[in-house]
Amino acid sequence: MLKMHNLSKIYRTDEVETIALNNVNIEINSGEFVAIMGPSGCGKSTLLNIVGMLDNPSEGEYVFLGEDVARYSEAKLANIRKRHIGFIFQSFNLIDELTVAENIELALLYHDIAASERRDRVAAVMDKVGIAHRAKHMPSQLSGGQQQRVAVARAVVGNQSMILADEPTGNLDSAHGQEVMEMLQGLNEEGTTIVMVTHSPAHADYARRTINLFDGQVVTENLRAA
Ligand code: ADP
Ligand code: ADP
């Protein structure tokens, strides 16, 4: 599905240069569930942002579905991103002024889909994540666990083939965190590729493979038995 070759990301401000990713080589196959771990500041978010085409690498190749997108413009990256990738964040990142259903539907506006079909697909995905009874509520009226269900629905409603999750359980208690992990596990079993940053070893255990970062470099990769 994707391949990074000698990829680096360097942030330059007036006086400082930070090497956030240093010569990273990573390959992720379609259908994998991969956890990314490492101490604060080691480059996890930077890596996820580049995987998700929210940012360009400074050096190296990033091949996504056979295309080297490393030097693509923001507009070109956005076009690929919206068709293929769903995002889940620690802080949910729902739009406060829109209802649950509208938040989910937003992810379909970039696709060429008639309004009636959009409504059907939003209804189906709300059922799937168990949030249908809250369709007309605003995000602020939901618990954290419910908000993350909405975010999961938004991440898959467009049949995105990959979900990128940045500490998806970081703001949830352990019971709701486990629910979200089980939801991700179910989606992975249906074929969705998942790449997840987590600090939780228990949640990393849901992944088949863990990539450990330190100081912007891949230090170890652990495979779990199936
Ligand atoms: P993690 O997600 O593992 O905590 P990050 O990817 O956020 O790590 O950050 C990696 C390094 O890059 C850190 O030293 C961080 O301070 C730096 N960094 C991240 N984003 C920026 C940015 N936009 N500008 C400058 N430095 C940044
Ligand atoms: P987290 O640990 O949850 O990933 P961070 O503190 O690493 O959060 O980063 C939060 C945001 O701030 C990210 O979007 C990152 O790009 C940005 N950021 C992190 N470090 C810096 C920095 N030194 N300068 C500018 N932006 C940064």
Features:
226 residues; alpha/beta; Rossmann fold; six-stranded mixed sheet; four-stranded antiparallel sheet; 7 helices; globular; binds adenosine-5'-diphosphate
What would you note in describing this structure?
The strands form two sheets. This protein has a six-stranded mixed beta sheet, sandwiched between helices. It has helices at residues 44-51, 74-84, 100-106, 115-128, 144-156, 174-189, 201-204; strands spanning 2-12, 17-28, 33-37, 59-64, 67-68, 85-89, 162-166, 193-197, 209-214, 217-223. Helix 3 packs parallel to helix 5 (144-156), helix 4 (115-128) packs across helix 5 (144-156) and helix 5 (144-156) runs parallel beside helix 6. The protein is built from seven helices and ten strands. The protein is α/β, with parallel strands linked by helices. The model has no long low-confidence stretch (mean pLDDT 95). Helix 6 (174-189) links the parallel strand 7 and strand 8. Helix content is 32%, strand content 28%. It has a single domain (29-53, 73-223), classed as Rossmann fold, CATH 3.40.50.300. The chain is globular, with a radius of gyration of 17 Å. The longest helix is centred in the last third of the chain and has 16 residues, at 174-189. Belongs to the ABC transporter superfamily. Macrolide exporter (TC 3.A.1.122) family. It comes from Gimibacter soli. This is ABC transporter ATP-binding protein. Keywords: ATP-binding, Cell inner membrane, Cell membrane, Membrane, Nucleotide-binding, Transport. Residues 2-226 form the ABC transporter domain.
